[in-house]
Structure formats: C-alpha cells, structure tokens
Amino acid sequence: MAKQRKNLTINKDNIKKTSVVESTISATQNQEFARPINPVLNYPNIGPKGGFGANVDLTKYYGKGYDDITNRVYYTSKTLLKNTKAFTEETQHTYIASGFNNFAEYLEIYSNAIGKSVVQSDITPALIENYLLHLRASELSFTTQKNRYTFLKSLLCRMNEKGYWLAVGNINLNSDFFPKNPFPNSNKRKKGEKPLPPYEKRQVVVALKQAIKPIYQKTESLSGYELTLCLLAMAIQTGINTQPLLNMTTDALSDHPLKDNRKLLRVLKKRGNNNQIRSLRKLEQFEVIQGVKLDVAYMIEKIIQLNALVRQESNSDLVFIYNKSKYSEQGAGSKSTSLQEVSLARNITKFIKEYDLNDEDGCTMKLNVSRIRKTFINDIYELSRENLLLTAQQANHSGTSTLDHYLQAPEQAKRNLGLMGEIRVKELTCVESNVPVGHCKDTINGDKAPKNGTFCNNFLGCFRCKSFVITGDDLHKLFSFYWAVVRNRYEFGRKEWKRHLRNVLKIVDEEVVPEFVKLGELQRVETEKERARTNPHPYWQNLDMLKVIL
Question: InterPro entries, from UniProt (predicted)?
C-alpha cells in the first residue's frame, strides 16, 4: 500500500500577524476607546508621484476630548477608500484636510466648555450653528468659511451613510438637520484671480526668458525649481490649467496630422475626464502671445530627455518628475518625487524673489498659473477682436457663459465707456441733431426720417439722405466708421457686408473726400483718416452698434 503524501499547503490564516488586524466594532457603541493601531490614512494616488502618496495622520487629534468622533472619521475614511470611483481620493482627502481639521479645533473648545468628551450624540443642529458662529468669528475669508463648512457637511453625510453616525436617526440631513443656505450669495462674493496687467506680464516674460535660457545648455537632470520655470513658460504659451500640466505624461506630444510645423500636446483634464488638446507651432511661427518666443514642444522633449534616468528609477511616466535634493532623510525609496501644487507655489515664490518681480504699486507680485491662464484668455479675446466663440474654443470651454469668470474689461474699454457717456449727454443737450457719423438737419422730419414722431436711427441711410451733413469736425467719426467697415468684413458676414456696407466705402472715397478736397482740406482729411485708423472713435471700435439696427 502506497504511503499517503503529506499535505504541504500553507493556510495564510495560520501565519497572519494578529497585531496588525483591527477588530470590527459596532458603530452604535461609544468608540472613544476603539482607537486604531495606526491611525494613518494613505491616499496613494495623490501627492507627489514617485514617493508614497499623501498620508493623513490622525494621531494629533487624539486625547483632546473627541476621540469617539475621530475614530468614526477614521473608519468612515477607510471605508470610502475601498471605492474611489464614487468619491475620488482628492475629494476624500479634502474631507479631512479642510472639513474635519477645522472642526476638530472647535470640538476641543466645545469639550472643555461642557466638561466631558464629545461623542456622536453631541453633534446636533445646535452644535452646527455654534460651529458656524465660530467660523464667522474667525479671520478666514467668507469663501474659505463656506468651503470648510461644506466639506464638513459632506464628511458627516458620508459618516451617516456608512453607519458611523447613527445618533441622528433616519432623517433627511439636508432638510431636517443642517441649516439652509448659511452662506448666501457666496458665488457673488467670491473673488477670483485677476489677469496680469501688461506691466506685470512683461516682467514675467522677460524674467522667464533669462531663467530658462541656461536650461537648454544643461546635460544633467533638472531640479524642481527648473521644472517650475518650464511649467510657467508652458502656461504662458498654452493657457492650460495647473493640474493638467502637472499630470502631463511623456506621451503627451504627438505629430500634427495635417501640419508639419505643429505638434499636438495632449493633457488629461480630470474634471469630466476630458482631454485637452493644444496645437503648438514651432519656434519660427509660434508667436501667439506677444514677447514669447519659446518652443513648447522642444521644451517638453528637453525635459523628458534630461530627466529620463530619474523617471526610469522611479518607474514613472510623468514629465515633471525629479530627484529631491535632500532625499536621504526619507530613505532611498523616496528619492524621486513629482512637482505638485505646494512645491510649485514654493518655487514660484523663489522665482519672484530672485528676479524681484513687483506689481505696479511696487509690492511683491502675486503670480500663479490661474492668473497666467486668465491673462492668456484675455489676450486671445483681445487679439480675436472680442470674438467670444473663438476665445471659448481656445480656452477649451463648451460655451461662452463660462468666460464671465475669466474676461476682464480692458482699461481702454472703460475709458471709451465714460467717453461715450459724455458724448451722448452732449448730443442730447445740443440744439443741432447729431448722428454717429455726422450731423442731421432734422432727425424727426428729415428726408429719410420715419416722419411718425420718432427719431431716425438708420445710420446707413445717412449716406443717401438729403438732410445729412458732414463737417470737418465729423471726419474722425466718419473715418472711424469707414475703418470699422474695412476691419469687420469677414466677421460681419460677406453677404451682409456686400449688401449694406460696400457702397459706404465707395460713397466716402468718391463723393465725400472730393468735396473736402475742393475746399482745400486734403491735409485735414488725410490726418483724420490716419487718426481714425490707429485711434478709432469709441462708437466705432467695431460694428456691434450697427448690428443692433440691422
């Protein structure tokens, strides 16, 4: 009889270390003494890449009178981390960093006030109202207060959903627990970043050109500061947001399918998981923003080449990855890291200080990628002659309504608006009737007037009207309209332009100008015509006013 073979299968449960197994505790009981062995939350997919992600250590919250709440926050967070599709790691991390962190400070004050530890049953509408008063009494901005409260509310709702906050019972938290709209009109009070004025933008561009020039001569890997300089230059050239740039990978560049003098840059936009695609011209033709002559495609390829070894050692495909200068303190495993918003802000501060960048008031300049993006979009808006559709397309916006948060009225527009108000008041108080291109003998009963008691507003009819009069003082307005007709031919629409405006140019050149020549005013005509071309009358910066009446 054959000898039976011994079963050598190893049961993993027999070798599991019981010291690292946390026992499951009922959420209904007081968890003040159910402190986890290692209360550290790890978010591996955020924070510097090439390191170990972002960790949130809850140890500092223990022993301050609200251990039960801290434990419930910990176990809720651990449960949420099992499904990052419902709530991303960034969102979960913000629950702790912005929501619970500030609330914990108030819980410590509240625990000392009531003389006992705070537990889940103590979180009542009254406590939330008192916390709101605590926020309003702080030095935080209105928007920051609103954000802190919103993230705390979301965290408490997740605790209730996961069964770690059952004291409230089965109620609708939004309608029956939390106060309704504690921060009214917060969207109107929020002040976003302003685009860089020309003076500041010029300083940044000149400083970047000086700072980046030595990078092209380097043969060793780039530091985090040098990568920041490259990222700022890319932001100025492309107008892409911070996170898509930081998360750029080595396969972001590709050949343009139609043009040899361009490259395609593809970056991932996390919101909605949409891809942003930018078409980059080569150096000789890439002059989208004045004063900038950097070749973005070449810069990206240079970064990939110089930091290839660092990328290989860290097994990462990110473009903005580098070796930390003092990695030995954190061990060999964390030798490399990637550029993140915190390190980016620190390096930008260093850049501002090194090149002494100041605003128009002489104060230290405030610089970030958000301001650069708004500057880019406003420049596109201005260069496209205020074409909203083209600007929205270049900004990767689905519609033009989102541009309200980016576009800023230029100083010239503000001056023109004030001047137009003065002109309009002068016209209304003047005895002689004025029109936007000249004078009219009678705007109510004139040759082309409607003769029904209303004012005539048919500007184009003026050129065929017997009541129309042009004086030497009207030449600036007349030629401003003339040049507006020339500039806006394609934007106005070719058919409409031929139908309504082509004859205007002919009348001015063949009928109006010869009459002034007969009076010996040729020099004045030429002067006013050139003045109108370079500095048009505010009424005729474009043909928007004409479109209203057609």
Answer: DNA_brk_join_enz, Integrase-like_cat_sf
